[in-house]
Every structure is written in C-alpha cells, then in structure tokens.
Amino acid sequence: MLTVRRFDKVKILWGKDRGKEGEIISIDPAKARVLVAKMNLAKRHTRPMGQKDQGGIKDKELYIPISKVMLVCLECKKPNRPKFDSLSDGTPIRLCRKCGGTIPEPKKK
Ligand SMILES: [Zn+2]
Hints:
The chain is an all-beta fold. 0% of the residues lie in helices and 39% in strands. It has one domain: SH3 type barrels (Roll), CATH 2.30.30.30. A hairpin with a 5-residue loop joins strand 8 and strand 9 (92-95). The protein binds zinc ion.
C-alpha cells in the first residue's frame, strides 16, 4: 500500500533537493515513484508548441522513487513513515509515528 497520496507534503531524502519539502503533484504507482512540485528539476529544451508557447529552456520535474521521500506530519511537522489504522467504520487512516496524530488525506484541488 502506498504511504503517500497526491498533494501530500513530503520531505526529499535524496539528490540535490535533499532536505527540502514539497507537494506531490503526481504518483506513478506501477513504478513506485512520485513527482514533487519544484523538486528534482531538470532543464528541458522544448520546441515552441502553439502560439502561446515560445519553447526554450524550461524546468521540469523528474520522478523521484517513493522510497526517497517521506511524508511530513502536518501536526508536528516531522517527516515519518505513517502507520496505517482504520476507524470503526473501516475508513483507513494514517497515523504519525512521532506524535500519534492523524495525517489527513490531502484535499483534492
Ligand atoms: Zn506528527
């Protein structure tokens, strides 16, 4: 089971952005990797695509292995691997291993 969701806040544990925090913008469950906004950027040289896109050099996020990011608890602000539990009605919840607080499912945007 994946411990992170889209729009979760995670800490980067690897690469040049190690130690920074960002928001997950995409998850690739099949390959267990994630895209984190503004993290692990690579310069991409792009061609003009249509009238509004002039092309040129753009920053683009590259996938980071899920094992290299850690969920950040919104309560205690500490990165940790959450513990899974469920409510009495069966709703799965994630619990912070540091403070025991519930890590809410990120709101869809
Ligand atoms: Zn916590």
